[in-house]
Amino acid sequence: MSEAGAPPERAKPKLIDRLKARIADARSRRPWFDHVMSTQEHYTRVHGNLLSGAATYFGFLSFFPILALGFAVIGKVSEYYPDAQDSMIDAIESVFPGIVSENGADGTISLEQIENSAGAVGLIGVVALLYSGLGWLSGLREGLVAAFEVPATEKYNFVVGKLVDLLTLAVIGFVLILSVGVAGAATGFADAILDFIPMGAAGGAVLWCVTVIVGIAASTLLFFAIYRLLPDPDLPRRALLQGAVLGAVGFEVLKSIVVPIMGSLGGSPFAALALAITLVVWINYFSRLTVYGAAWAYTAPATVAHQRAVQRQAYTRPAATVVDERGLDDPVMARTTGERIVAAARPVAVLGLFAVGIRELIRRSGD
Where does the sequence pass through the membrane (predicted)? Predict the structure, then answer.
C-alpha cells in the first residue's frame, strides 16, 4: 500500500500505443516511409481490394472477346504489315506469361484457336465483341476514378466513357506491340555485344539485367498510358510516372513468379483448372497493382504540393473540408468550361495521332 500523499504511479502505455508512437515518429523522420504508409491508408480508404475485384470480374469475362477482337483487327492490318500478327502474339505472351501461347502447348490457352475463331467474326460480331471486351477497361476506369478521387462532375458519361475505353484499348495494344519490339531489339543488341566482347559468366547476368530493365521500362509506359487516358486525373506527370514505375516493378515480379508455376503444371490432369484459376488471379493482381500504383501517385509529394497550390488559388471558392490521409482538404469543384473542353479533346487528339501513325506505317509497308 502506498504512503499517504505519495503521487500515484503512472500506468505504462499499452503495446499498441507504443507501436503507434514509434510509427508516427518514423513517419515524421523518414518521408519515404510516410509515403508508403499514406499509400496503404489511401488504398484501404478507397477499398482498393474491392475495386480490383470488380475489375477482375469484368476482366475475366472480357479476356477472350478482347483477344478475338484483337486478332480480327490485326488480320486486316497484316495485309499491309505482315509482321503485325507475330508482334501481337509476342505482346500477348509477354503480358500473360505461361498462361497463353501460340499453339497451346503444356495446357496453355491456344492463341491459334482464338485466331481461327476471330476470322469468322462479322460486323455484328465485332460490335458484340467490342462491347463485351470493353467491360474490363470500364471496371478498371471506375476503380481508378475512385483511387484518384476524380470529382463526379469530371467523370465521363456513358458514351464518352466507352469511347475513351476504346481509345485506351487501341493505345494499350499499340504500346504493347511497340514495347515488345523495342525490348526484343534491345535484348538482341545486348546479346550481340556479349558475343563480340566475351564476358564469361558475367555475360548472362548482364543480359538478364538488360532484359529486366527494358521490361520495366515497357511496363512503365503501359501503366502510364492507363493512368493518363482512363481516369484523366488532375495530377502532375511526375507523380503518375512514379505510380507507373511502381506498377511496372510489381508486374515484372509477378511475371517471374507465374512462369515457373505454370511450367510445373504442364501435363498435369488439373492443368485446365489451374489455368483458369491462374488467369483469374493474374488479372486480379494486375488490377491491384494498377490501383495501388494510382494510390502511390495520389499520395506522392508532387501531388501533395500540387493540391496545396490548387487549394491556395481556390481558397475563396466553396469547397468540402474533408481531410484525407495526406493532411489536405479534399475540395470537390467543377472544372471551368475551358478545362472541360481540353479534357474532352485530349483523347480525340491522341486517337488522331494514333491513326496518323498507323496510316504512315501502312503507307511505308506498301512502298
Answer: 54-74, 118-137, 166-193, 205-227, 239-258, 270-287
Grid coordinates in use for 335? 472544372
With vertex at residue 268, the alpha carbon angle to CA 52 and CA 285, rounded to the nearest 5 degrees, is 10
Give bridge partners of residue 100 from the DSSP assignment. 109
Of 9-23, 195-209, 223-237, 336-350, the range with the lowest mean pLDDT is: 336-350
The DSSP result for 257-302, as a single string, is: HHHHHHHHTTT-TTHHHHHHHHHHHHHHHHHHHHHHHHHHHHTSHH
DSSP string across 139-172 = HHHHHHHHHTT--GGGS--HHHHHHHHHHHHHHH
Residue 94 · residue 176 · CB < 8 Å: yes
For residue 109, list its beta bridge partners.
100
Q: What is the DSSP string of 200-239?
A: THHHHHHHHHHHHHHHHHHHHHHHHHHHHHTT--S--HHH
Extract long-range pairs of 207-212: CB within 8 Å, 24+ residues apart.
Answer: 210/186, 211/183, 211/187, 212/252
DSSP 320: -
Which cell goes with 67? 483477344
pLDDT digits (tens, 9 = 90+) for 9-58: 566 667 787 788 888 888 888 888 999 999 999 999 999 999 898 888 88
- d(Cα 135, Cα 65) in Å, to the nearest integer? 10
Greater pLDDT, 239 or 76: 239
Report how many helices (DSSP H) and strands (DSSP E) the chain contains, helices first: 13, 2
